[in-house]
Amino acid sequence: xxxxxxxxxxxxxxxxxxxxxxxxxxxxxxxxxxxxxxxxxxxxxxxxxxxxxxxxxxxxxxxxxxxxxxxxxxxxxxxxxxxxxxxxxxxxxxxxxx
Length: 98
Prior knowledge:
Blueprint lengths: L9 E5 L25 H10 L5 E3 L3 E2 L4 E2 L2 E5 L4 H17 L2
Antiparallel strand pairs: 1-5, 2-5, 3-4
Keywords: Cytoplasm, Ribonucleoprotein, Signal recognition particle
GO molecular function: 7S RNA binding
Organism: Sulfodiicoccus acidiphilus
């Protein structure tokens, strides 16, 4: 599968969306929910908790960083921003309990 094969019913969620740092580097959730230590496995676990059928992509390059950071393809149930916020909050809550 390539990124161009995604249909309108799937979203690609880059790991950079959830990591600390400025929005210019890719962060798309509130700074209070961001975490520099998030892994691809953490993101997959969060997507599974919401029943989004996650499919990890390990060897993909995020365009803004030009480095292989990984992404997860999930089912689209809400808008991309709503999905990002829900997953970000889930990750924040589970980070605090670990």
